[in-house]
Write a structure and sequence with these properties.
Number of strands: 0
Distance between the termini: 183 Å
Radius of gyration: 55 Å
Helix content: over 70%
Structural class: mainly alpha
Order of helices and strands: HH
Length: 134
């Protein structure tokens, strides 16, 4: 006679199979979770390194820009002084040119007056030589 497995033995066998499947599934889930976590950590580390490098660059560039800004302000102040000096020279030159123009106008007035005197003396027939006694 063949003996059929008892219901208790069948249940135990099914439970063992289920436990084994659950154990395998749990192990696969655990491995998948570990792989996923490792991937996220790797990506995070990669991004973190990039961001840290960028932050370091930004900080160094900020320092360099601050130095350049100070240099530009210093050179701007120097240019203002030089511009003021040139403006003073231009104003003095303008004044001197005005004086030259005034002298030229005065010379033209004198020349006109002398021409008027010469024309006034010419119709009478009296020359400058005659007046001096020569």
């Amino acid at each position: 006679m063949t003996s059929s497995p008892s219901p208790t033995a069948t249940t135990e066998s099914t439970n063992r199979s289920s436990n084994h499947l659950l154990s395998n599934q749990s192990q696969r889930t655990s491995e998948a979770r570990a792989a996923f976590t490792a991937t996220l950590t790797s990506i995070g580390t990669s991004l973190d390194n990039d961001l840290q490098a960028r932050a370091s660059d930004i900080h160094s560039n900020s320092t360099a820009i601050s130095k350049q800004e100070a240099d530009v302000l210093k050179q701007g102040a120097g240019l203002k002084k030089e511009s003021d000096r040139y403006q003073k020279v231009a104003d003095e030159s303008r004044g001197k040119l005005k004086e030259i123009g005034d002298i030229q106008n005065w010379a033209e007035i004198l020349e006109r007056d002398l021409l008027v005197l010469e024309e006034t003396a010419a119709p009478r027939g009296v020359g400058l030589e005659d007046r001096t006694g020569e």
